[in-house]
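ARCHIVE CARD
Drawer: 12
Card no.: 0347
Subject: one protein chain, sequence and derived structure
Cross-reference: see card 0346
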Amino acid sequence: MKTLIELYDERPVENVLATEMFRPERTVFLCPAEIAQNKNVHEKLRAYMKHRGLDSELVFLECSQYNTAKIERQLAGVVEKYPECVLDITGGTDAALFAGGLLCARSDMPVFTYSRRQNSFFNIHNAPFAEGVKCDVRYDVSSCFMMAGGALRSGRFDNSILSGYMDDIDQFFAIYMDNKSQWTRFVSYMQKASQTDRDSDYIPLEVSAPYTVKGDRGSRISAPEKVLEDVERLGFIKDLYIKTGSSVSFTFRDLNVRKWLRDVGSVLELYVYKVCRDTGLFCDVQTSAIVDWEGDGKQDNVTNEIDVMAVRGIVPLFISCKTCAVDTEALNELAILRDRFGGEIAKAAIVTTQSCRLVTAHRADELGITVIELDDLRKGRIGDIIKSMMGAK
């Protein structure tokens, strides 16, 4: 394919998918003025194409968005200037699509589209090469952010090492569920018992602490003996010695485990990450995915953390994990991230270890967010729910 004409769309995937599938020599974007003149947007799209191993030349041309006659003239100008043009009508405004139809009625220019429902391309006019072609593009989490102008930053988890803990995560979560009512106090105790010198970079794995430590606001937290013993049986700590009423000592398995036992939400995030991996559906799964909205790595950029993000083919799944009750603010934030970095094809779920209130469930339904709550976790339904969300049998 020599030249692909794209009608620029606010939905990122519709700007890049056909270029990834058919790999034209050049892609010409017909854009609104604010995009055609925005060099930052152009460079981000070029960086994305390079990230994806594509070398198509990208051309950005200003085009009316709502005047059909003007759009038709501008399309005709592109066809005249560039050889062997093909038009993708997957994105763009209604006026642009109408103008494309008018031009094609008077020419033999090939036209095709992509169906999200069928995950296939289709011949609209004189484009037999696209007829019924299944989309086999597979994105990773980083690509989903980059195509929307953002970037993936390192989060609280080193995803590259998690495969070494897969055999432990189910039991870790089972310990949490057995001790859910005490978990916050357990984590608070672990934080206080394993405090380190702020002026030192050295983080010891060995812990020796009083049986009762000072909590927040003058509270006192005694060692949660049962949870400590459960965690020792798992192998996350060793050499546990408890002298009731006096002292506690143990050694963390490693620095990763130390981090997870000092953070309330890590156990749920790790479990949901493993569930996504275990479904076998996803080509990429990341936990603690930090999205930099501007994509240039500056420290003052707006960033958000997505607790777990997974991608099946081109469809991203955004998951928020809550060990507390879900509120409207959490739902709204998740919906914004899904829409900004995933678009209409993206899915979103919120996983909570609490029961969901009816009013919250109603708001989630309005936003198109699936709620996976305490009863679903207890009955082991989370994997089946995720499969259903992603259209898997």
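Annotation on reverse: The chain has a mean pLDDT of 93. DSSP finds 15 helices and 18 strands in the chain.
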